[in-house]
Amino acid sequence: MAQVSEEREDRVDATGAHPAAAPGTPEPGDAGTPATPEFPGTAGASATSETGGTAATPVVPETSGTGEAARLSAAGTAEADTPAALRTGEAGGAAADTPAALRTGEAGGAAADTSATLRTGEAGGAVAQPPAASDSGASDTPAPAEAVKKASKAGRNLPAAIGVALLLGAAIIVSLLTVRYLMIGIIAIAIAVGTFEFAGVLRRVADIRVAMIPVLVGGQAMIWLAWPFGREGALTAFVLTVLACLLWRLPGGAKGYLRDISASTFAAAYLPLFAAFAAMLVPPEDGVGRVLTFLIGVVASDTGGYIAGVLGGKHPMAPTISPKKTWEGFAGSLIGGVVAGALTLSLMLDGHVWQGVIFGVAIVLTATLGDLVESLIKRDLGVKDMGTLLPGHGGIMDRLDSLLPSAVVSWLLLSAFVPV
Description:
Shape: globular
Strand content: 5-15%
Strand order of the largest sheet: 6-3-7
């Protein structure tokens, strides 16, 4: 093949004319421009000159209106790129062409550039071609996505939160109005799930190992023993639970022992022991009114604070603990809690309005304290929610935060204001 090519070049040099091309061989370009053979699937492949430079002379596809293949101009600037073709320019640099952009050479020849084609700029060096524009000047680049909408001031999926709250409320009311002792079962289940959530977060985030079996079993004992034996039964079960945790953790060795025992004791006190006071509201004959007074007071406090905070919250109450909690929201909680306390305690339990006002203020304070305490715990652990069981709310623990400390205060105040 090399010998045949040399003979053809000799004839060209002697006569100054191109010999007839063999069948299937593309016609050469203009005089002085070496022709590049066109092979199937490799149109536009690079051709190297004898001097070591490379000149790209791809076969240009036919364009409408010319009836023949478009050719390079005298300056050799118009060209057609093919998919994934590597081509070398006059000074040898690489550049990335944008996909499917229509480009026009200086001589007016049109060529179609395709993706992944590397081309060399005339001055050398890598040149990144920007997205090519159409004849009208409009860019082919997709329009940038719209800015993400600002999160709602509600900070949650409000429809889901309302739906879950209504379902939980309906379950509680049905249990109270049918067999009120079912309420103790609801409390026990909620505490068991909350214990799993709390222990799981401590394990995943801080490698703190709560003595799960003693806390779960002892927690259920605190709640159910509070039914017949009151606070004596709950406190006795709590002390036995702490002792069981001390023994349960012994085989684990000294490393992290105090840390794990402290977390186990805190979990036993914060969850089932506090919840046992809510269970103690159920057994009296007016237990339904006591439980509803407690729950309505907490819900009114949370709802009033939520609405006031969303609508007019501007002054953070504890920015380093809970940035969304504001003094305006706290004022809304006070209004809601006081109104609810005055109405429920006087209408359901035959108490005095002033007692209801005191009860409402106390519930607001303890509910706010519980909310701040759990916010501080979650901030310390670096988590947003304790769980994902309740859409729009988070986990069970995220709904128990204001209820748990309020249960203790509710039992104490209602026992003083409306003795059994």
